[in-house]
Amino acid sequence: MNFDIAIVGGGIIGVTAGRWLAERGLKVCVVERGKLASGTSAANFSWVNASQKTTDAKYHHLNALGVRLYAELGDEFGYEALGLRQSGSITVAAGTTGIAALQGQAARLAALGYPHRLLDPAELQELEPHMAFAADTSGLLAPSDMILDAARFVGAMAARIRALGGEVVEDCPALELLSDDDGQVSGLKTSEGEIATARVLIAAGPDTPDVLAALTGFDGFATRFPVVRVPGLLVTTPPVSPGLVRHLLVRDTPDEFHVFPDFNGGLRLGSDDADARITEDSSVNEQRDAARLLLARMQALAPGFAGEACLDDCHIRIGVRAVPQDGISIAGPLPGAEGVFVIATHSGVTLAPALASLMAEVIADGVVPDMLKPFTLDRLPGFGG
After folding, report:
1. What residue spans define the domains of the chain?
2. What is the pLDDT of residues 162-212, one digit of tens each?
3. Taking the mean position of all CA atoms in its chain, how far away is CA 384?
4. Phi and psi dihedrals of 38, rounded to 5?
5. Nearest 5 degrees, angle CA 185-CA 347-CA 20?
6. What CATH number belongs to 5-44+150-226+325-379?
7. pTM over 0.70
């Protein structure tokens, strides 16, 4: 099998990158050791946004590009077909300190040029009529933010790769990078045979260090590659009354949590507090205890919600995120390995189309676009930095 590029990883990053490269005319093969979108892509909060990324302008603009490209894809292929919902997000806050923080966020978004609108208490209550907000609660609406059914989106991107003459292969672990005497990649060995290609993109999410170690035979990648595994708890409730929550809601204080109307008709809940209570190996009881926290907070905000009474009918899962050690996305060539490229990032749902489009320039044209330069590996110690 001869391909212009092989991509290791069938999550949202790998398959979206494959779609962009296929659109550029490259013959693409994506290999996934399990099923498509079965890892981090299947267990994440799935919030497409740049509204919360305001402290670093370059990172904000990368996320805003992701939001914009999702909208373009939705206009081209249909939002429903891609699993995109134009929900908008509302960050809510009460009290002098909370409202001041909200105003500061609005000022930063204004400076960055990202659409937003401050909501007074009456406007907020009108947009979310079933919420029991405190009387002095205000909001910040980000109408461009969306939510995503990641599995449906990955399926649509995979179908597009196949339509353009590429392949997407499941249950096919990548085993070894092949190279010639000069160190140039010549192929990828998999459980299903060898793929002849001069370029390989690693998009293995939190498993990136271990995958690089296995493919290259250099064990140091497993311990030194600058990506850490960060677990997060997700709770999806059974169906609730239609319209109980109308937007993606974020509350930082008091009792921080975030929620959106999920695609199953229920609610998807998460919070940093709940994440701090669990590990990848948390028992079922530990996960249920953290879920109770989220359900109680939701019931306090929406008295019409069943709260802990629906715990047994909730889907509780732990998603493991790939977080670069410096908190900044990694995307670009792997220094010292001709023909090998890597993407590893948190906010993979938001950033998938942005990183895919930029990496397509790197891989197809051999040029690193200016927007991507702050996120390449050579900024880091041991990789040229």
Report:
1. 5-44+150-226+325-379, 89-143, 229-323
2. 999 999 999 999 999 999 888 899 999 999 999 999 999 999 999 999 999
3. 27
4. -100, -5
5. 45
6. 3.50.50.60
7. yes
